[in-house]
Design goal:
The chain is α/β, with parallel strands linked by helices and 159 residues long. Strands 1, 2, 3, 4, 5, 6, 7 and 8 form an 8-stranded mixed sheet that branches. The radius of gyration is 14 Å and the shape is globular.
Length: 159
């Protein structure tokens, strides 16, 4: 089993542990970016739940699950968490989550991450999230996303 297959299995297992039997789909084309994923699955870019890992000044990871159409206002989120944030680099993301950038899912990480969920995702009945590899996604509702991440709904969009 290759690394991406193991990563996808971790996501599937994490979903099952949370009582969800959601189907993970793989595509011949990339789902690495929100635009790629939307093209592959045939939805709006805003329906892609992109998982972005940030690093606090204390060196801790923080997950923001944002609408694919939105840029995250880092200062706004930093004010919510009470300390400055920066986008994490690829090595930090892999070390703290166990997944590579481009396939980071909202669940199944090596450790529990404080998670913030973009309120704009709740404009849709169904959204798509990365499933652990740059060609894999799964379909769920925003409510299910909130449930599986234990996240906090916030406004993260740059205005």
């Amino acid at each position: 089993m290759g690394r991406s297959s193991r990563s996808i299995q971790r996501v599937s297992d994490a979903l099952a542990e949370r009582g969800l039997a959601l189907e993970l789909a793989r595509f011949p084309s990339s789902t690495r970016t929100a635009a790629d994923a939307a093209h592959s699955v045939g939805c709006q870019v805003a329906q892609i739940a992109k998982s972005l890992v940030f690093r606090t000044t204390g060196g801790e990871p923080l997950l923001i699950v944002a609408s694919g159409a939105n840029r995250v206002d880092v200062a706004k989120v930093a004010a919510l968490v009470g300390e400055p944030l920066e986008m994490a680099d690829a090595a930090f993301v892999r070390d703290r989550t166990g997944f590579a950038i481009g396939g980071v899912p909202p669940v199944g990480h090596d450790r529990t991450l404080p998670t913030y969920v973009d309120r704009d995702l709740f404009a849709f009945d169904r959204i798509w999230a990365a499933a652990g590899a740059p060609d894999a996604v799964f379909l769920l509702s925003p409510g299910q996303l909130l449930e599986i991440t234990g996240g906090t709904v916030v406004d993260v969009r740059v205005r």
